[in-house]
C-alpha cells in the first residue's frame, strides 16, 4: 500500500487487516474441516491493536480468542469483541471480573484450581467454562504428572465445573533437531488427556499446536489449534510457509532533517558513526524509546526509503536515528521511511537487535501513532 504521512508525522505503526485475512485463510487451509482456530490476541494482538484485530476476527468467524491477562479480555469486551475469550494467567483477585465480562480462566495449578472451586461454590456459579493447561515439558504454567491424581479428584468432586478444553504448549515446535522432545510432549498429552476424559461426563476439546506446530505436525490438530505469531505473518522464518504469509504490522518513521556530512566526520553519540565518503544523512523521528533496539545502530540495520536500503549510522538515540541517504537523491524532510513491513521484514531488525520478531512487534511504545488499514 502507498503510505501517506504528513510532514514530521510521529512514528506510525500500521495494522494491515487485509494481510490478517490472508494469513488466517492460509492457516485454515491447513486444517481439517472440524478443527477450530483459537486466535491469540494477547499483548495488544502482538502489537497490532487487539480491539481492531479482535473485531475483524469475529467478522471472519473466529469464535475463540486467547489473551494473557484479565484486563486484556476486559478491554476486548468493553469494545464489543464477542465469542469465547480464554485468559491464560488469571489471579484469584480477577475472578469477579472474569464472571462479569464472560471471560474464561485457564487453571494451571492446584492452588488456583482450589481457589476457583471455592469461589464458584461460594457464589453459587455452575457450569462456567474453564480451561486446563497441562505441563508436558515447557516447565512454565500447567499441571504436571505429580498433580494429575489430585486434579482428577477435584474434577470428579466438582460436577458443577465445566471443563471446556484441555491443552498444552510446545516448547520447540519450529526446530526439527528437537522433534524427539516435541514427540514426547505429544505422547504425554495423549496419555494425560485420556485420563482426564475418562473422569469427565463427556470428552473435552483438546489443543496443543501453535503456529509452527500447525505447519509441521498436522496429525496433532485435535479439536482446535492456537494460532499466534503466524497469524501476524512473522516468526516462522525457518519454515517454508514463511513465503506464503504477509506481515500484519508495519512501522514507519519520517525524515525530520537532512544534513550533508563529510567523509570521516563523526556522527552521533560517542562519535561512533561516520561515512566513508562525502554524503548525506537523514535524521528520523524514531528511536529506542519507540521500540528500535539500541543494538541496531552502527550499520547493523538498514531502513528502507523507496527502493533503497539505508544503513543506520552511529548509535540509536532515544528519540532519533541517523541513516545514510547518500544513494537517495530525491528525499526531503517529511519523506516516509519503512522501518519494517512488507518490503523490509521485521526479522531483519530483530536480528540486528539480537532478539526475536515477537519482541519487536510487541515493543511499540505508547507514543507510536497507530493506523488501521482495511
From TrEMBL:
GO terms for molecular function: alanine racemase activity; pyridoxal phosphate binding. GO terms for cellular component: cytosol. Its cofactor is pyridoxal 5'-phosphate. Its EC number is 5.1.1.1. Substrate binds at residues 140, 318. Keywords: Isomerase, Pyridoxal phosphate. One of its GO terms (biological process) is D-alanine biosynthetic process. InterPro entries: Ala_racemase, Ala_racemase/Decarboxylase_C, Ala_racemase_C, Ala_racemase_N, PLP-binding_barrel. It is an enzyme of class 5 (isomerase). It catalyses: L-alanine = D-alanine. Pathway: Amino-acid biosynthesis; D-alanine biosynthesis; D-alanine from L-alanine: step 1/1. SUPFAM superfamilies: Alanine racemase C-terminal domain-like, PLP-binding barrel. Residues 248-373 form the Alanine racemase C-terminal domain. HAMAP family: Ala_racemase. PANTHER family: ALANINE RACEMASE, ALANINE RACEMASE, CATABOLIC-RELATED. Catalyzes the interconversion of L-alanine and D-alanine. May also act on other amino acids. NCBIfam families: alr (TIGR00492). Belongs to the alanine racemase family. This is Alanine racemase. The lineage of its organism: Bacteria, Pseudomonadati, Bacteroidota, Saprospiria, Saprospirales.
Amino acid at each position: 500500500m502507498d503510505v501517506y504521512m504528513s510532514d514530521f508525522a510521529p512514528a506510525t505503526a500500521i495494522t494491515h487487516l487485509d494481510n490478517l485475512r490472508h494469513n488466517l485463510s492460509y492457516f485454515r487451509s491447513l486444517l481439517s474441516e472440524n478443527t477450530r482456530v483459537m486466535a491469540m490476541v494477547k499483548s495488544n494482538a502482538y502489537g497490532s491493536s487487539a480491539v481492531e484485530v479482535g473485531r475483524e476476527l469475529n467478522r471472519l468467524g473466529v469464535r475463540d480468542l486467547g489473551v494473557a491477562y484479565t484486563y486484556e479480555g476486559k478491554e476486548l469486551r468493553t469494545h464489543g469483541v464477542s465469542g469465547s475469550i480464554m485468559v491464560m494467567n488469571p489471579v484469584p483477585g480477577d475472578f469477579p471480573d472474569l464472571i462479569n465480562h464472560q471471560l474464561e480462566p485457564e487453571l494451571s495449578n492446584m492452588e488456583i484450581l482450589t481457589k476457583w472451586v471455592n469461589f464458584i461454590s461460594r457464589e453459587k456459579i455452575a457450569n462456567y467454562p474453564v480451561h486446563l493447561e497441562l505441563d508436558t515439558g515447557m516447565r512454565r504454567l500447567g499441571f504436571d504428572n505429580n498433580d494429575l491424581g489430585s486434579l482428577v479428584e477435584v474434577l470428579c468432586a466438582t460436577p458443577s465445573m465445566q471443563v471446556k478444553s484441555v491443552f498444552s504448549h510446545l516448547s520447540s515446535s519450529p526446530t526439527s533437531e528437537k522433534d524427539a522432545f516435541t514427540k514426547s510432549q505429544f505422547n504425554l498429552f495423549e496419555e494425560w488427556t485420556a485420563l482426564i476424559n475418562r473422569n469427565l461426563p463427556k470428552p473435552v476439546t483438546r489443543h496443543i499446536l501453535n503456529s509452527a506446530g500447525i505447519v509441521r505436525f498436522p496429525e496433532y490438530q485435535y479439536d482446535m489449534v492456537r494460532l499466534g505469531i503466524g497469524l501476524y505473518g512473522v516468526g516462522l522464518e525457518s519454515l517454508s510457509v514463511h513465503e506464503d504469509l504477509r506481515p500484519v504490522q508495519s512501522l514507519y518513521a519520517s525524515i525530520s532533517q537532512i544534513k550533508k556530512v563529510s567523509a570521516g566526520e563523526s556522527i552521533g553519540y560517542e562519535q561512533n558513526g561516520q561515512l566513508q565518503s562525502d554524503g548525506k544523512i537523514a535524521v528520523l523521528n524514531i528511536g529506542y524509546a519507540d521500540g528500535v533496539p539500541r543494538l541496531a545502530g552502527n550499520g547493523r540495520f538498514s531502513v528502507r526509503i523507496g527502493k533503497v536500503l539505508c544503513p543506520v549510522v552511529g548509535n540509536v538515540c532515544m528519540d532519533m536515528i541517523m541513516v545514510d541517504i547518500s544513494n537517495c537523491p530525491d528525499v526531503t524532510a517529511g519523506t516516509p521511511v519503512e522501518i519494517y513491513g512488507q518490503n523490509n521484514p521485521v526479522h531483519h531488525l530483530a536480528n540486528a537487535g539480537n532478539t526475536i520478531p515477537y519482541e519487536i512487534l510487541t515493543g511499540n511504545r505508547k507514543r507510536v501513532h497507530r493506523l488501521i488499514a482495511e
